[in-house]
Amino acid sequence: MSNHHVTNTTHPNAGSPGPGAEPDEHPYDLIVVGAGIAGLAAALTGVSGLAGVTGTTDGAGRRGPVQPPRILVLDAHPAGGRARTSEQAGFLHNVGPHAMYRSGALAALLARHGVEVSGGEPASGAAIMVRDGQGHPMRLSPGSMLRTSLLTPGERLRLLALFATVQRAKPAQLVGTSVDDWLAPYPRRVRQFADMLIRVSSYTDAPDVFDAGAAVAQLQLAIGPGVQYLDGGWQSIVAGCLDVLAAAGVDVRTDEETLTVRSVDRSPLVSVTTSNTTHTAHSVVIAGGGPETAERLTGATVRGLDRITPPVTASTLDLALATARPALAFALDAPLYLSAHAPAARLAPEGHGLVSLMRYHAPGADAGDPAVRRAELRAFARHVGIGERGDEREVLHERYLHRMVVTHGAPTASGGGLAGRPAVDALGLPGVYLAGDWVGAEGLLADAAAASGIAAARAAAQRCASITG
Ligand SMILES: Cc1cc2nc3c(=O)[nH]c(=O)nc-3n(C[C@H](O)[C@H](O)[C@H](O)COP(=O)(O)OP(=O)(O)OC[C@H]3O[C@@H](n4cnc5c(N)ncnc54)[C@H](O)[C@@H]3O)c2cc1C
Fold first, then answer.
1. What is the pTM of this model?
2. Ligand 1 mean position to 38 CA, how many Å?
3. CATH no., domain 28-82+235-307+418-468
4. Residues 121-226+312-407, CATH architecture
5. What is the DSSP letter of 411?
6. Per-domain residue ranges for the chain?
7. Which residues of the chain, if any, have pLDDT below 50?
8. CA 243 to mean position of chain CA atoms
């Protein structure tokens, strides 16, 4: 992992008065609140997008000569948000199972900015399909579908037809239809396969409201170029982005909580009050996780929240194993998933394995009793032979997370799918933009966070050009 550069004392304002102080005389071109994937994407895009359009302006908006962009990134915690990775006894634990879509917005962002990550693919052999408590080995290939004992001959043909439909489908034509309505013509046991694949690719278990256009677009990403598990965990993305930002002179300050984001009277500037001081900027991107953070910081209301689901959550269990083994399992009649992330990616000491399990919850749903959830995930691990016959010695340690927010809002059919999610300017405040996995018209999960971070920084660059130009 690289030694990235995060400061908290070098800015000219260091030592200036705390919250409530007068805004400084040297506004930033862009302040980004939150250094998760969305905030890092906004800052990276700001570096290139603001180049050439920035100049010094004083508190009254008077313009000086063109200069490199001045960008400040603030986070209340260490950088990375839900993309952080923690180490325990040589095992690297992401915040639950994390896979990067090879052709998603995040991978494209990293490639564009020269952030190199490496990794491997999920186990390619037979997966275990679990139904009625029984495991059945099966590959997700047409040949295996035509042979599986899980379906009748007629159902197998319908599953194959559904697969072909997904590959050919134009997602835009399905926008406005729920997953349940889209799958209604198929037999129940065929729908179970489709629901399982949609769950595992979107991490969303809400077929009654989830938009089929968004679901199919995501399935196409999963079936096509597929996903990658990252060596060193998702922290490698964070570290790589921080290195690029440091080289570009971006000021990244962690452990500095933003308290308010407000327009400055009689000025195009926005003021950001933090636990340390007050900063001003031409634009601010709020990438603080969910919409409630943006509303709390600004006192404004995010428009369009009724078009997305409440936060989608999951319970996750990592099992650090004494032996390396490929494993992949899906439940057809329950929202459960298991995959060996190591040895596919370098996340465990040599010869060891790391298996991640997940239980998806319906949007807004209670995660239930932690002990029950954990036992359910442990029981699911037995389908791939972990903990079988009471032999627990293989598990060196476990890491359980009870209720993690996977996305702060999934696109709904009634809300118009991805295009119905709140836009980057949905706060309606000049110079204040939103980014996160619930914002904008592109992608799901971390890809949505990256895409909206990019869009928010582009909007900020346009505003900067209009103010300083
Ligand atoms: C269990 C799990 C599994 C997942 N698996 C995948 C996957 O396989 N593939 C995928 O693409 N995505 C996955 N995701 C989703 C992905 O992790 C998120 O979409 C993405 O990391 C969100 O990034 P973000 O920047 O929008 O938000 P966050 O990562 O939540 O970052 C927000 C940041 O803002 C900071 N902040 C908040 N308030 C303030 C404040 N007032 N002042 C300063 N800083 C503040 C926080 O400290 C945090 O660092 C998964 C998520 C979970 C929980």
1. 0.93
2. 8
3. 3.50.50.60
4. Alpha-Beta Complex (3.90)
5. B
6. 28-82+235-307+418-468, 121-226+312-407
7. 1-5, 8-21, 23
8. 20
